[in-house]
Amino acid sequence: MKRVSKYRVRRFLGILFTYLGVAVALGFFLFPFLWILTTSLKGNEDYFSFPPVWLPTHPSLVHYYGLFSRGNGWLYFKNSLTISTLSMLAALCFSVPTAYSVARFRFGGKLFTNFLLLLRTMPAIALVIPIYVLYRQLGLINHYFGLILLYTVFYIPFAVWLMIGFIRDVPKEIEEAALIDGCSHLQALLRVILPIIVPGLAVVALFAFITTWNEFLFAVILTGAETKTMMVLVSSYTSGSPTDTFFGEASASVVLGIIPAFLVAFALQRYLVKGLALGAVKG
Amino acid sequence: MQRVVHTTVRGDNGICKREHGMHSGWSWRQYISVLLLACTLVIGGLGLSSSEAAKPYEGTTVKMIVNGEFLKYAMSLIEPALLETHGIKLEVEVIPGEAFVTKTLLEFTNGQSPWDLIMFNPSNFADYHRHFEPLDPYIKKLNLKLDLDDVAKEYRSTNMYWGGTLYAMPLDGDIHIMFYNKVAFERPENKQRFKEKYGYDLAPPQTWKQWDDMAAFFHGWGWDGSDNKLFGAGASYKENGFSLHWWRSRFFAYGGQYFDENMKPLINTKPGIRALEELVKTVDYYPPGVLLFESEEPKTMLIKGEVPMLVSWTSTGKRVGDPNQSLIVDKAGYGVIPGHLVDGKVIRAVPNTGGRSLAISKYSKVKDATAVVLEFISSPEQSLKIDMDSKTLMDPWRNSHFAAEKFRSAFPGAGEYLDAIKESFTYTVPDPQIPGSDEYRRRLSEAVTKALQKSVPPKEALDQAAEEWDKITKRRGLSKQKEFWKQQATAMKEAGVTFRPELADK
Predict the structure, then answer these.
(1) Which of A128, A171, B118, B497 is least surrounded, with the fewest CB atoms within 10 Å of its CB?
(2) How confident is the model at residue A245 (pLDDT cuts 50, 70, 90)?
(3) Are residues B103 and A237, on separate chains, in Cβ contact within 8 Å?
(4) Which of A239, A251, A253 would best serve as a mutation to test chain B binding (most B beta carbons within 10 A)?
(5) Could you tell me the pLDDT band of residue B2, with boundaries at 50, 70 and 90?
(6) CA torsion through residues B235, B236, B237, B243, sign
(7) Crossing angle, helix B437-452 and helix B458-476, to 10 degrees?
(8) What is the C-alpha to C-alpha distance for residues A63 and A244, in angstroms, rounded to an integer?
(9) Smallest Cα distance from A90 to chain B, Å
């Protein structure tokens, strides 16, 4: 009996500390977001109150309204959504066939995958001026296409590198079975491999979407008034010592800026469980 | 004509005669009608042409670039009047401060810009001026009334002219003044305790020594009579453009100068080291988080009654006087920032941090209309409207702003506040205004904040900053930089700012 109760106590304490740890970690990571969320609903007089106003007594959406009526909130939101979605799709479209050819046909030789990663190490700040000059010559400044092209080019190396791993994990036997049944390589890729590597596609899609959504440097340098993105708007509110007047709008822009990325992550998270391919040839 | 014939047939002889006598067959009523119509057309035409003359740019859109949403808000205060007066639409684009200089200079150096009216920090005048239109030709051509004599003298050289040519008009004056909560200085208990501890009377500080004593005295207890643990003083010690201004107020008062005549940095000499050592020594008397404070945090602490004194930008006064935000509306005092007592005289050095100016882009396609917009925004009436609004962060810069009864009576103590700014003008020291000034300031600010974090000793931090300054100078060309510095050093010398390191020993 004693051994059983000791075991139970230990188990209880283990669960308790696990939950406590998780709660502390959650509090630590979520508190800033909670603060921003409540600030976006507070009145101007509450921002710097002491003691702090944790929850607004009269929550209001007035700052969200201000963001859309006074600022360019809707335009920038739409721009972010368009650019992020198209960059994500473009990254997927180009990285999957490239990764397939590397994984299955050793395209580019042994060093190609390492070379791909090397491209990722180049700091964006070093490229900003040459890219600006090139884009100016090509007339791509202040165009969606310019940004989408740039982001796609940036994400492809990492996406390909990631997808190579996922495709290599798919047993060759499945693909060979499809080929024997009369599929071409393209058909095998589209009909057999793609459904199996959905977790990999989800990771690439998530990475491309969130990185594009949060990107600031190129979004400010290569855009004009019509093509700026949400991240630029957030910085516009917080730059140059914002007054109390704009803390609400700044917070509202941050909240709005987070929602789409959160939704995409939420929608794709169930695909992020890797191991779909494991056991596909068992039995 | 039909009516005339009809009338003639119907009328008596007398009338017939008269009508025949007119030959045209028109009645006197018709003549009057035609006359009236003609008059109406002439007057209407005149009116039309005069209104066309008054609004020659009607329907034009002028694109303006600024570096923060609050500036867009400031422009929204005058946009309706601009549209009504000139028929010009103002479109304001915001580029965040972090990328503003890079983005605008990238556009300009490629020989174009999507903007017509450019807001810029005058500290970057050296980098920008070649992309601006000189204003004198427009003053002549369009008969612009810029009321140049009404601009405070201190802003004329720093914010408007480069190499003797007028390029810009101020949008925002930017100097530091001192703000204090009278409760802290007037409570008899505070006065008594202070005198017992420091041996002299408690009053708004005149020297940095007094400031430091008072910050230490006030820190950590309820100097307002409450049980709250309040703070000794407020400041903005964040790097990237903030902390260096608090350092330089002391640096120049102790006899400092940016460079010698050969562009050797002098920031790591005695005045600089003393100034930074004092800041480091007293940092604990400031609110926690002061190393991350930009301009608004300490202002808020002042108006909430949490700090007894603060040196900050002049726009603070409008928040102090706003009853919707401030708890110290009728308890606030204003003055010139402290200095250094030498032989019975207080040497003060008030940072003129440049503020903001407006200029016409050389690449604009609607330069005349832009010149008219510039004239409108900087007119005494419109600029006062912008400066008086507590949400704009814009500071007064015209002499008429300081004299405006509307402003002087805007809140209790507004007159005292405006007088303190005017008095501070006597002691202003400008930012470095040579090419790359933004880089020089950032490197210095990083060093100051690093020392305040106590991660590097003050002397070492300033040595590192001096090294960085040398690198910037070399990269930009020593002889070119020397030439620009020579101009600024001469102007500073004329204003009484020279390198006198011996003052740091006093």
Answers:
(1) A171
(2) low
(3) no
(4) A239
(5) very low
(6) negative
(7) 170
(8) 12
(9) 27
